[in-house]
Amino acid sequence: MVKGYCSHWLALKGMITLLGMIFYGFGVVEGKMITEKKISEFQRKINRLKSIAVISIQSEDGDIIDCIDIYKQPAFDHPALKNHTIQMAPSYDPTMDSATETTTRTNTLNKRNNEDSSVTVTSQLWQKSGSCPKGTIPIRRVQEKELLKTDSTEEYGRKKPTFCLLLRALNKGTPNFSSNRSHLIMCYVNQVAILLTEGFSYSGVKGDIRAWNPFVESDDEYSTSQISLKSGPYYDFESLESGWAVNPSVYGDKQTRLFVYWTADASKTTGCFDLTCPGFVQTSSEVALGAAIYPLSVPYGLPYQITLYIFKDPATNNWWVQYGEKINLGYWPPHLFTLLFHGNAEGAEWGGEVYSLKLGHPNHTRTEMGNGQFPDGMFGNSGTVKRLRIRENSLILKFPEWVFTYSDDYDCYRTLYVEDYIEDPEFYYGGPGRSPVCP
Question: Where do transmembrane segments lie in this chain (predicted)?
Fold first, then answer.
């Protein structure tokens, strides 16, 4: 049965590759067929933001940051947000969520913070060159070369829909099989190595994510590390995500960059990274979504991390993103969603994701997850998330009552959940992609 499935899958992949050669083989730019009309469409998008910039800042890494009037940001091009009133700040202080944890947990957290040498990062390279005035938001200017890598401005910044097959598990002893699930979901466009929790109603997720710069093999691939809230089935889910990414197809290079991402239909027709499509309403004048993070961790060096918190405002139902425990970046209005409009999320996740067309078959991509090392719970030389927290229906941040790990391909990207002999559980993940154990 497995042999038959694999042969059908390889045949399908061959057809996909052939079609890709047919459709992309006649391209003019980056292997794509770009018409004059399409180029004109891209230029209009770029020129529109340039024309309304209050000031523009040239970053030393080549980025241009345009300071845009907060009321003229791209979010309001979304049909559901035409008459939207900006919520400038959450209706309550989200830093108080941590203060309402139990005394035992708070004391434990403070103790571990004193012992942990990790440094929380909120700085970005462009900030060395200037800052945006109050009443504006910093928007990373999209370069024409980045837009020309996609088929249309509507698709730019959106993840490719995941191709998954739902199979009945043939061997419950496989490392990436969760014993409490009756089916195995095999995905062949992206692979994840995550810690997740389900079974309750989640209004927030938080974590400290070690910041690395993993190798990404091809410009059409990416590697991310993030926290997320999700609702719905795997083929049509709604998702809110934030973390760091190395994503050449969106950002034009292989720097590690801060991102937010959303979708209301598993990325089939909705959603995008950052402000590349209407949806996310930014309120911070300090941080540019999609801008490079610095400094970054290096193996056995000082560990740098970013702290992210996605939470629902109980007064407005807006889904906020907080960065570094002090900067409220902005929010997703509930009107973008269906399940997340009416209620809380069904699951919370922490971990890494790799996208590539070279997954699930021989000649696996060499794109790394985390920092390219398998999980290292001893020295932390791998993808790492600490201070794992969720918020349910109250305004109390807490460790989830139960969690489990999941990996799409344990030979390529692995997970390690550590809870014994430490007072606050930690999650390690990642891998090198193609290797002797992942051919």
Answer: 12-29
